[in-house]
Specification:
mainly alpha; Four Helix Bundle (Hemerythrin (Met), subunit A); two-stranded antiparallel sheet; 55% helix; elongated
Length: 195
């Protein structure tokens, strides 16, 4: 297919810039199964190794997602709905998984993530949010004023960010083993990261 023809196909695709709760929850509901299918019972080379000092392994990434389910998304949503901009969200410890995951297996973390995500999505659905609720505003401790739709959209994109990070960390383990094919493997050249 010529590059011009490919461009035409993409021009006619609808934009997803408008937030829709059903679209976000469709993605959020699939992340636990995606992680489970990719990581459960995998050898340690894939799940316990990272990219070097101060980087995360697959185990660390799943632990971080568990921590977010417990301490970030729904607690912040509750603060926003209860207090609006009057109270800033509690700061989120992005490295809490270091201590919270100690003594747990990856399988335990995957199960915990699936359970917490299911509970959070059930709680979100029980709120029966209306379109006008999505414009409600809250206060992030460092970003300032944010809307409910931005918080929910960020939750979904946060999942995608860590799925991207996960594929990069796993590919890194074979960075030398692929030999000259590394020239064709963009994941090995990716400089993207999650902070």
């Amino acid at each position: 297919m010529s590059p011009k023809r490919r461009a035409c196909i993409y021009e006619s695709m609808p934009s997803l810039t408008e937030f829709r709760l059903t679209d976000a929850t469709a993605l959020l509901s699939r992340t636990p199964a995606t992680l489970d299918a990719l990581l459960r019972e995998m050898p340690d080379v894939w799940v316990r190794r990272n990219e070097g000092q101060d980087t995360w392994s697959a185990f660390d990434i799943v632990g971080h997602l568990v921590s977010g389910e417990r301490n970030d998304w729904m607690p912040r949503l509750g603060i926003l709905l209860e207090s609006g901009e009057a109270r800033a969200f509690d700061p989120f410890d992005r490295f809490a998984q270091t201590r919270e995951s100690q003594g747990k297996s990856l399988e335990q973390l995957l199960d915990e993530f699936a359970r917490l995500r299911r509970e959070n999505l059930d709680a979100l659905q029980a709120l029966t949010l209306q379109p006008e609720d999505l414009a409600r505003r809250g206060k992030h401790p460092s970003l300032g004023v944010v809307t409910l739709s931005e918080l929910l959209a960020t939750w979904a994109v946060h999942d995608l960010t860590h799925l991207h990070q996960l594929s990069r960390v796993m590919a890194y383990q074979y960075r030398e083993a692929v030999g000259p094919w590394s020239a064709y493997l963009g994941v090995l050249k990716c400089a993207g990261h999650s902070e």
